[in-house]
Amino acid sequence: MTRCYNFCAGPAALPESVLEIARDEMLDWHGAGLSLMEMSHRSPEVVNVAERAQQTLRNLLGISEDYAVLFLQGGASTQFSAVPLNLLDGGGAVDYVNTGQWSRKAIAEARRYADVNVVASSEDTNYSTIPAKQTWQLGTEAAYLHYTPNETIGGVEFFWTPKVDVPLVADMSSTLLSRPIEVNDFGVIYAGAQKNIGPAGLTLVIVHRSLLGRADDQCPAMLNWQTAADNDSMYNTPPTYALYLSGLVFDWLQNLGGLQAMAAINRRKAEKLYSAIDTSSYYSNPVELASRSSMNIPFTLADPAQDKMFLQESEAAGLLNLKGHRSVGGMRASIYNAVPEKAVDALIAFMQDFEQRNG
Ligand SMILES: *Cc1c(COP(=O)(O)O)cnc(C)c1O
């Protein structure tokens, strides 16, 4: 068996040890005589798996009982609608920061339900910067402020938290669990699982309980956070297997030493790769220094005509999914939690060799 190094932006790499546990438990989960996939979500066993996953996640992130933790479906994209539907009772104004492609999608969806005030945008720099907080034009009547702490496509990350007087809502799909955060700074945090949490199919919402019960009558039950909270995320059949795998990822993180330890590893990985890019005259990264993502690192080649060859050769070398998004061009290496440091070392060695041969 050869496992390659996977730099996919999502669905992304999972820890190998988690996949091994899942393999060993696939046919007979803990002596139950069947796969967890085949068990009722109402069974004590599955309920316990869900409760344990939630508890470990609470420990990792330091989530207090003031917050509900919801395991939902539909991806982060469904939360683009759920956020206004849950926080606006019958319309009103909302503030959004536009720092990239995911911000834009969240804004477009919110416009169906609310008067969206774009408080700041970095579109004029092709999303390679974060507008300084003092330039933000905050609304006076906004029900909340929404932003995207890590723009997965542009590779732009906030290393500071905006302090505002309204509930702060964050799409943390590609940064959650990469480092410690102060959950108390946020009204709502949401994330699709397929980056740092687990497999696709699960969506995580962490919401301050004071923000529950505000949903519009028109809000579908499946999007209503209060309904999910009242039913322990089992209003309908939850994605049980994705939940189980995510619980294994949380255990893996805990055993590694938690988010502080994970953050140190992630910082090292990112610094190595940025340093390799910066010391070369062949590769470059367009993002302003202070906002360079530690999870998603886009880079371009001096000669874009060599992109195709770079991709073919890197794939042949077992370095997968390095193609960048068309809006940025070139390459993108997503180096989430489960991408080991030796994968980054292998990528850097490949890049240096490629440059020597073609630069
Ligand atoms: C991946 C991603 C999304 C989309 O997630 P889905 O689960 O596919 O809907 C949204 N926002 C960010 C920041 C992402 O990285």
CATH architecture level-2 label of the largest domain: 3-Layer(aba) Sandwich
Secondary structure: helix percent: 25-40%
Mean pLDDT: 97
CATH superfamily placement of the largest domain: Type I PLP-dependent aspartate aminotransferase-like (Major domain)
Our count of domains comes out at 2
* Secondary structure tally: strands: 14
> Over all CA atoms, what is the radius of gyration?
21 Å
Low-confidence spans: none
Class of secondary structure makeup: alpha/beta
| CATH fold topology of the largest domain | Aspartate Aminotransferase, domain 2
Globular, elongated, flat, extended or rod-shaped: what is the shape?
globular
Q: Span between N and C termini?
A: 34 Å
Largest sheet: 7 strands, mixed
Q: Topology as H/E string?
A: EHHEHEHEEEEEEEHHHEEHEEH
Query: What is the CATH top level name of the largest domain?
Result: Alpha Beta
Residue share in β-strands: 15-25%
Strand order of the largest sheet: 2-10-9-8-5-3-4
Bound small molecules, deduplicated:
pyridoxal-5'-phosphate
Can you lay out the helices and strands and say which pair or pack?
Layout (H helix, E strand, L loop, with lengths): L4 E2 L9 H9 L19 H18 L5 E6 L2 H13 L5 E6 L2 H10 L4 E7 L23 E3 L2 E2 L4 E2 L10 E4 L16 E5 L10 E6 L16 H6 L9 H17 L1 H21 L4 E2 L11 E6 L5 H10 L2 E2 L10 E4 L6 H18 L1
Parallel strand pairs: 1-13, 3-4, 3-5, 5-8, 8-9
Antiparallel strand pairs: 2-10, 6-7, 9-10, 11-12, 12-14
Helix pairs in contact: 1-6, 2-6, 3-4, 6-7, 7-9
The chain binds pyridoxal-5'-phosphate.
Pyridoxal-5'-phosphate binds next to helix 3.
